[in-house]
Design brief:
heterodimer, A: about 230 residues, alpha+beta, Phosphorylase Kinase, domain 1, 7 helices, about 20% strand, disordered C terminus, B: about 180 residues, mainly alpha, Rna Polymerase Sigma Factor, Chain: A, Arc Repressor Mutant, subunit A, 9 helices, about 0% strand, globular
């Protein structure tokens, strides 16, 4: 039985293992290594998470970054495929219709393969399939009024480029052309058919060719483009 | 600039590790004794000390006063590590645990006395036991214990007085000379 021994001495009597300090140190170092490894893993996990979020964001924004073409353009593209087997050139009724709307025929070297009226989402359009002077095809859709293009100007749809043109509320033009058709060829056709479009054609082109301002009443020609 | 910043961070970290190493050498024995009197099992006591140091390292950068290092470590041991070991088998190989490495002749301490004290401490409520160990084992003053346990000094004094009474009763000593509490 304990007699007069002070409690403090007695409580201090147990001895720690001589190697305890070293074990604590080893354990501490091992935990530091694990923490560092976990930190690296967390970093990569965080990186992967951020990449996934970014990817999701891009997917979410994709429709805004790459808007799908207006419904009218899609309808026109479908109409092109539907009428691929039709031929017959520029028919007399179509010629009359073009004349009535002050639209000139395309240049002689660009042959009209097919011309018909078609319904694009409820709008009755004239559809002309024109074989390019060199190669390729352009499809010109003409509507005597304002077509709802949803402020879209150009783009690509199912392997074809498309562009829209508007002459006030009086006339809307939608052109689709394949990869073989050069844009200059399309411009020449439009310029011939719609002289009123010439300044705007030149204006669009001037962004690509030159920053020189165009004089009023300027009529774009192929030679001037190269000057 | 970035290189300088990372270099200074590295140096600061090395300095901190050096201080922490010194802290292990300085206090591990005291922590071990405290843990051992709590759990009566060497293995668990060592684990508690290791866990305490691990947690201490995580908050070491926030430690401002190094003078209070032992008090700070004991607080961690009490709050975090002890929680893990509360309720575990405490009396496994108690005699061996308490008396390992004890030179009975040189110290003049009988193993049976240690066992008796352990059982007496075990019979105290945890608050009294903690207070008594801080006072009698580590030699903290009433004020220091009051700050560590976040209780008024009066509470510390009354806990120690009650613990002393309970211990005397447990140890069946009535000459009042067993525990030199007065400082």
């Amino acid at each position: 039985m304990m007699a007069d021994k002070p409690l403090q001495d007695l409580l201090n009597a147990p001895r720690a293992d001589a190697a305890l300090a070293q074990r604590i140190r080893d354990n501490w170092r091992r935990q530091q290594r694990i923490a560092a490894r976990d930190g690296t893993a967390r970093f990569w996990l965080y990186g992967a998470g951020m990449a996934a979020v970014a990817l999701f964001g891009v997917l979410l924004l994709w429709p805004w970054l790459h808007p799908s073409p207006p419904l009218l353009v899609v309808s026109a593209r479908l109409d092109i495929d539907k009428d691929a087997g039709l031929h017959g050139g520029l028919s007399a009724p179509m010629q009359d219709w073009l004349t009535a709307h002050a639209i000139a025929p395309p240049p002689a070297e660009d042959r009209v393969e097919m011309a018909k009226f078609c319904n694009l989402s409820g709008y009755l359009n004239a559809h002309l399939r024109i074989a390019g002077a060199r190669q390729g095809h352009a499809h010109v859709f003409i509507y005597p009024g304002s077509l709802p293009f949803d402020n879209a100007h150009d783009g690509r749809v199912d392997g074809m480029r498309w562009e829209t043109w508007r002459m006030g509320n009086a006339m809307s033009v939608l052109v689709l052309y394949d990869k073989k058709m050069r844009r200059q060829g399309v411009e020449r056709i439009l310029q011939a058919m719609f002289p009123r479009l010439a300044p705007r054609l030149a204006e669009r082109l001037s962004v690509q060719v030159s920053s020189r301002p165009l004089p009023d009443g300027f009529v774009f020609t192929k030679q001037e483009k190269h000057s | 600039m970035k290189l300088v910043s990372s270099l200074s961070k590295h140096l600061a970290r090395r300095q901190m590790a050096k201080r922490f190493n010194a802290c292990i050498d300085l206090h591990h024995a005291a922590l071990f004794k405290h843990a051992l009197w709590l759990v009566g099992n060497r293995q668990d006591a060592e684990d508690m000390v290791q866990e305490t140091y691990y947690q201490a390292w995580r908050s070491f950068p926030t430690l401002k006063e190094e003078g209070s290092m032992l008090a700070w470590l004991l607080t961690i041991l009490r709050r975090s590590a002890a929680r893990e070991y509360r309720g575990r088998a405490r009396n496994k190989d108690l005699r061996a645990a308490l008396t390992a490495g004890l030179d009975e002749r040189a110290s003049g301490i009988a193993p049976q006395d240690m066992l008796d004290v352990f059982h007496a401490l075990d019979s105290l409520n945890p608050a009294q036991r903690d207070t008594l160990l801080l006072f009698a084992l580590h030699g903290f003053s009433y004020l220091e214990i009051s700050a560590q346990l976040e209780v008024p000094v009066g509470t510390v004094m009354s806990r120690i007085a009650r613990a002393r009474t309970a211990l005397r009763k447990q140890l069946s000593v009535d000459d009042g000379n067993v525990i030199p509490f007065e400082r």
